[in-house]
């Protein structure tokens, strides 16, 4: 199993893994939306050991994490969100989910300056809750009742990423000392950094994106209709 | 006829029409348009706007009729041409849309909107030189926007003009007066994009320098690290490359490429097992939770070294009860020694366990330890390179005895039944496994798949329905189709085909074909979206992937199924009605099939009725939830594929699938074999020959080749008079070199 960054060519088999494993499914375009908005954040676990039968064989995806940054955070704090995470039943107990999560979390901080990462999990999903809470250190924020299409409640969980920000800062200090150069800019993200200015200006009502269900990217992303003027 | 001009009041009204359209308030928009048309019935622009609104409401034909009418009234209106283009675009006729946009642009060269619409279509259609031109114009109009510079660079890049792409990016960079923020993601990504263009030109030295200076603060840390390692390795700067790969391994010790990179940089020879082991051992010690560091050495170790490493690895995996252990090691079976050693080690583990902890059982997890080893051996004897199904059964039963409720064990038992050829029992067993964990969709999917393999389409759909969304009108099938569930559509189609229901089989294959069309169109929005997001490297990755989208095995499997089914239909035109009863029907088999087909038809009708009833029972408010103007979902006028099955030109229909198959998967020998079969029936002998030659090049020992060669020779000599002499000459010369012909 390799753990590596998602590539566009992985997406059909990521969608396949999602459909096999989880009841919350999405159009391919929704995966593209993640891959093209935050390409640094989504990771896959792939089985590269089997010899390909044709030159067109794609490596089998045995696990994936699909992650994003919250586009317009209600609390104004930059943070990541886990849209979907699953590992094939046949490939459990190898710590794949944890390893996928850790890679994604690191990139959230490095690339997008995330302060925390949030997610939803079914209240009945003991294994996942164990991973998030006990292994990764997530805290339960609240319970969202009937979050899932079948009526089940979700725990909203979040993990403070200060520890990664701290690590990063230390590494940078070290680097600076080594190079003897001074920092150019230490400012926090301001203005439209990391955001889509066009979307911010758009007068369309905000669309709440539920993890529980796919919306077309058209709905999520932008108005594509041309204006005849 | 002279176009009418509007009074001030109506001109204002016209602007509100546009606004209503943009806000998707279609009813109001139509009303306002009618108001204008009452006084000015020949106002072409208003007629066009009306067409646009109707189109948005799904009234395509009416829309086109109106748009054409508007154009006959006023050929010189750019609005009319633009609308005409939009109609074509929304109906996926991109070539015509491009033509209309170009007319519109000729009439109104300064329209940013039209230029943008045209540009997007050009890149969608891969008209790169047109795209360069458009992006050039757009940059000229608005050079202050970085996006416009980046976009022109992308256009040059895709066109293959790498140097120009780089120049454009550099020109913009030089124009920046203030230092961009370190957190400016667009800037960071533009730098890395430029770096990728430098590398693509082959100038690795310069790429590395650029990376070390301009990109050293880029926000995508991983990309910088990976590129650095790669460049250093390519430049032969081994010591630094090793350091770079070590840094990557510290970040992620589960990626085999990093180990390979490190090993190469360290200059370790391929057979030097000791030095290789040392590298991996170092990381296994440093990162005890890393699986790769412990598992990968099994690939290159041999003899006693392999034995020792495998023993340690298996012991660890069995103790932890890792279910994928066999799956992760079975690729080693191409080596006979390893194939012997692994099961022996598992047996050894079992006997050691038996000796040590006969008393220490208690409440421990029985999928770990002994159970895991038994499970490994069951899979070993079930694997095609080491198959002994009696032994496989023995081991899986022992495992089940130990842990009767273990889903994985029961799953493997089902697989053993499948390999014994008992599909019914396999399906039953898999469904039993499912019943042990009804909250897990994975086992649910497997149970449904086994039901499909046993031709139980209805049962499988009911199984899957336990997890699909209950609210989707049309039930599980509609939900699985909406969600683009290719595996189900393929297996369902194949099962219908085995049952002789040509209609439903074709229906599923065509659905898959259409999903690939959707996936291709999905890129459309990203041509402009990605420019705003600034994630250009990801966008280029998308474009390159979309260009070879249909090489995916998802496509080739369904396409091959469809082509082969069409071939059968051509060879044995069906007697039965409704597309049911295709295939090779003879004797007892035929009556059996007919019965099955009849039953299938009844069931399909029943399912349809139920779906209709269910839809009717839906809360009317909910059903109408689609807002004013939202595209109404088109009703499928051929849900059972009866029309597809009733084709009079199966070979022509097969071409739809075959074309992409040969274009995107030319190295798939099954595609070439199927291509030959279609072409020879269509008497396209040169094309048939081409497929045959491609097959021979791929695998000259393929069993079908001698037969195909002989048939082609026969056909060609029979077609003596109808073939141009030149063609015949070529074919015969080529055939002479073909074995068996």
Can you put this structure into words, describing what you see?
- The complex is a heterodimer of chains A (about 230) and B (about 750).
- Chain A has about 230 residues and is of the alpha+beta class.
- Chain A has a single domain (about 1-180, about 195-220), classed as Gcn5-related N-acetyltransferase (GNAT) (Aminopeptidase, 3-Layer(aba) Sandwich).
- Chain A contains 7 helices and 7 strands.
- Chain A has helices at about 10-20, 30-35, 95-110, 125-135, 160-180, 195-200, 215-220; strands at about 1-5, 45, 60-70, 80-85, 115-120, 140-145, 155-160.
- In chain A, α3 (about 95-110) links the parallel β4 and β5.
- The longest helix of chain A is centred in the C-terminal third of the chain and has 18 residues, at about 160-180.
- Residues about 180-229 of chain A have low confidence and may be disordered.
- Chain B is mainly α.
- Among the domains of chain B are: about 10-190, Alpha Horseshoe (Serine Threonine Protein Phosphatase 5, Tetratricopeptide repeat), CATH 1.25.40.1040; about 235-300, no CATH class.
- Chain B is built from 41 helices and no strands.
- In chain B, α1 (about 10-20) packs parallel to α3 and α8 (about 130-140) runs antiparallel to α9.
- The longest helix of chain B has about 30 residues, at about 585-615.
- Residues about 575-585 and about 615-630 of chain B have low confidence and may be disordered.
- The interface between A and B is large, with 85 and 94 residues.
Short description:
The complex is a heterodimer of chains A (229) and B (741). With 229 residues, chain A is α+β, with helices and mostly antiparallel strands. Chain A is built from seven helices and seven strands; from the N terminus they run E-H-H-E-E-E-H-E-H-E-E-H-H-H.
């Amino acid at each position: 199993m390799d753990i590596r960054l998602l590539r566009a060519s992985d997406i059909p088999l990521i969608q396949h893994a999602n459909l096999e494993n989880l009841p919350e499914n999405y159009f391919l375009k929704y995966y593209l939306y993640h891959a093209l908005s935050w390409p640094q954040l989504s990771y896959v676990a792939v089985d590269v050991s089997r010899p390909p039968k044709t030159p067109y064989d794609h490596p089998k995806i045995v696990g994936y994490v699909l992650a994003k940054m919250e586009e317009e955070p209600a609390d104004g704090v930059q943070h990541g969100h886990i849209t979907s995470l699953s590992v094939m039943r046949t490939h459990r107990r190898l710590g794949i989910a944890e390893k996928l999560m850790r890679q994604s979390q690191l990139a959230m901080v490095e690339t997008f300056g995330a302060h925390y990462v949030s997610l939803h999990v079914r209240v009945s999903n003991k294994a996942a809750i164990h991973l998030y809470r006990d292994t990764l250190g997530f805290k339960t924020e609240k319970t969202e009742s009937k979050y899932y299409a079948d009526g089940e409640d979700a725990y909203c969980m979040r993990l403070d990423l200060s520890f990664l920000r701290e690590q990063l800062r230390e590494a940078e200090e070290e680097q600076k000392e080594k190079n003897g150069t001074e920092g150019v800019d230490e400012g926090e993200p301001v203005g439209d950094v990391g955001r889509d200015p066009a979307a911010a200006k758009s007068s369309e009502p905000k669309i709440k994106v539920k993890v529980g269900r796919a919306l077309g990217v058209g709905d999520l992303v932008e108005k594509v209709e041309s204006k005849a003027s | 006829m002279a176009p009418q001009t509007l009074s001030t009041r109506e001109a204002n009204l016209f602007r509100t029409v546009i606004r209503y359209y943009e806000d998707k308030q279609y009813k109001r928009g139509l009303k306002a348009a009618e108001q204008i048309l009452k006084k000015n019935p020949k106002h072409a622009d208003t007629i066009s706007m009306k067409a646009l609104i109707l189109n948005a409401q799904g009234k395509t034909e009416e829309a086109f009729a109106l748009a054409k009418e508007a154009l006959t009234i006023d050929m010189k209106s750019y609005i009319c041409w633009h609308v005409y283009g939009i109609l074509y675009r929304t109906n996926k006729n991109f070539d015509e849309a491009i033509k209309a946009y170009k007319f519109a642009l000729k009439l109104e060269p300064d329209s940013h909107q039209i230029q943008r619409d045209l540009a997007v279509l050009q890149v969608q259609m891969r008209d790169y030189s047109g795209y360069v031109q458009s992006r050039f114009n757009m940059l000229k109009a608005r050079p202050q926007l970085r996006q416009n510079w980046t976009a022109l660079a992308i256009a040059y890049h895709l066109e293959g003009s790498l140097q120009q792409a780089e120049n454009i990016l550099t020109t913009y960079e030089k124009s920046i007066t203030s230092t961009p923020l370190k957190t400016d993601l667009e800037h960071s990504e533009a730098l890395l994009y430029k770096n990728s263009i430098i590398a693509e030109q082959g100038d690795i030295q310069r790429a590395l320098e650029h990376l070390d200076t301009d990109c050293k603060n880029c926000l995508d840390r991983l990309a910088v690290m990976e590129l650095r390692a790669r460049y250093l390795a390519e430049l032969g700067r081994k010591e630094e490359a090793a350091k770079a790969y070590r840094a990557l391994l510290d970040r992620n010790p589960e990626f085999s490429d990093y180990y390979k990179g490190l090993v190469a940089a360290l200059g370790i020879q391929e057979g030097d097992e000791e030095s290789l082991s040392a590298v991996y051992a170092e990381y296994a010690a440093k990162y005890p939770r890393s699986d790769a560091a412990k598992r990968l050495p099994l690939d290159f170790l041999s003899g006693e070294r392999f034995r020792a490493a495998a023993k340690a690895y298996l012991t660890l995996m069995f103790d932890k009860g890792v279910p994928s252990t066999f799956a992760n090691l079975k690729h080693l079976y191409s080596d006979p020694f390893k194939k012997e050693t692994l099961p022996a080690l598992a047996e050894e583990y079992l006997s050691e366990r038996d000796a040590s902890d006969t008393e220490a059982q208690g409440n421990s997890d029985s999928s770990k330890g002994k159970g895991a080893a038994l499970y490994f051996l069951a899979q070993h004897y079930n694997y095609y390179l080491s198959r002994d199904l009696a032994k496989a059964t023995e081991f899986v039963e022992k495992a089940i005895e130990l842990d009767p409720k273990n889903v994985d064990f029961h799953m493997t038992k089902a697989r053993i039944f499948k390999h014994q050829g008992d599909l019914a029992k396999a399906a039953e067993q898999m469904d039993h496994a499912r019943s042990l964990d009804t909250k897990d969709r994975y086992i649910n999917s497997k149970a449904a798949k086994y039901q499909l393999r046993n031709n139980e389409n209805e049962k499988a759909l009911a199984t899957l329905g336990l997890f699909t969304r209950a609210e989707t009108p049309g039930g599980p099938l509609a939900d699985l189709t909406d969600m683009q569930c290719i595996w189900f559509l393929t297996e369902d189609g194949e099962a219908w085909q085995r049952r002789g229901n040509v209609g439903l089989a074709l229906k599923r294959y065509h659905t898959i074909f259409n999903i690939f069309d959707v996936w291709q169109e999905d890129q459309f929005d990203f041509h402009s979206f990605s420019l705003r997001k600034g994630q250009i490297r990801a966008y280029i990755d998308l474009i390159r992937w979309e260009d070879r989208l249909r090489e995916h095995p998802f496509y080739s499997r369904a396409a091959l199924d469809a082509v082969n089914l069409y071939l059968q239909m051509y060879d044995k035109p069906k007697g039965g009605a409704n597309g049911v009863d295709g295939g090779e029907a003879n004797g007892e088999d035929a009556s059996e099939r007919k019965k099955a087909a009849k039953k299938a038809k009844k069931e399909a009708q029943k399912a349809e009725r139920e779906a209709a009833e269910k839809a009717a029972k839906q809360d009317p408010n909910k059903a109408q939830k689609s807002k004013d103007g939202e595209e109404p979902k088109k009703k499928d006028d051929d849900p059972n594929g009866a029309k597809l099955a009733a084709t009079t030109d199966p070979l022509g229909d097969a071409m739809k699938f075959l074309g992409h198959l040969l274009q995107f998967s030319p190295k798939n020998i099954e595609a070439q074999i199927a291509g030959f079969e279609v072409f020879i029936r269509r008497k396209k002998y040169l094309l048939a020959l081409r497929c045959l030659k491609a097959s021979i090049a791929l695998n000259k020992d393929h069993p079908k080749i001698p037969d195909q060669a002989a048939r082609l020779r026969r056909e060609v000599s029979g077609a003596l008079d109808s073939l141009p002499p030149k063609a015949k000459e070529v074919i015969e010369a080529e055939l002479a070199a073909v074995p068996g012909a």
